[in-house]
Hints:
With 333 residues, the protein is α+β, with helices and mostly antiparallel strands. Helix content is 31%, strand content 15%. The protein is built from 9 helices and 10 strands. Helix 5 packs antiparallel against helix 6, helix 5 (194-209) runs parallel beside helix 7 and helix 6 (216-228) runs antiparallel to helix 7. It is elongated. Residues 168-188, 304-333 are annotated as: Disordered.
Amino acid sequence: MPFASSLPKVGLLAVRYARLGYRVLPLHPGEKRPHGGLVPRGLKEASREEAVIRAWWGREPQAGVGLLAPEGVLVLDFDLPEAWEGLKEEHPELLEAPRQRTPKGGVHLFLRLPPGLEGALSASVRRLEGVDLRGMGRAYVVAAPTRLADGRGYAWEAPLRRPEELPPVPSGLLQKLLPPPPPPPQEVGLGASPRRLRRLLEAFADRVAAAPIGQRHLTLIAYARAAGGLLPHGLDPREAEELLVAAAMQAGLPEREAREAVRWGLQVGAQAPLPLEEPGGFWNTPGFGNRGVYQNFRPSLSQKPGFGTREVKSEGEKGKPILSFRPRLGGWS
């Protein structure tokens, strides 16, 4: 096993990246793809173990290095210099983030995601022209001092820092990167009345409470943003927070995690008020969230909205809040 001092420069930097909190993997010399002879399973074998890293570059000193940022770190991959120039003018705080220049003049920018948003962004969806989403524990980037076959290489313009030391993604930029919030379910003749706002909030909470494992974070963020879009219409933010947090805990999320995500979603969503046009039918908006959830609970059109109220209880296992429904007796209001 070679000592760190006997490693090539790229191997030494790979060890440094690992010590900063990033997993690395060896790449074929002069290429961007994982080295099949060293990591036959590719990205799945990315590691922070120094002994493993030293063994890789001890066997292949010419290997490049791929860097896999953890779940809470977003890497913006700017294909072209003009894409980076335009966005940094719009968000000058991006200049505080670690960044490296790519061989074609693009930029890799490292930013910290707000708590609870780890699963809310997709590396396969491009929402900004010329910008790909990397990192988040799912997509690696080629890192300095890797050189490609034509001799061009990667170089840091602002050094990499630990994940917890990275600047956060600017709120305005994050709003553009996230998928749009779901439209509110429509109701007949209620406008933006307090009653309608409450029923919309309850519908959002129902969706959060019914979210399956693997989709709870994304669902909570989406509907917290949607509820935030109702705040300019008069929805009580404290009521929204408590009901959504209770719904998230019913789905199985820890309270602290749920509350952080809800507060962030409400804050961001309030910057983009949801349009509440005059509705044309009761909960008939096409494509609203998980259609299957309301297929089993959609009221008959002959029923008048407002036939009960929801309450937050704390009688479940381990004190988890439970959303319950209390029917209204004695006629319609």
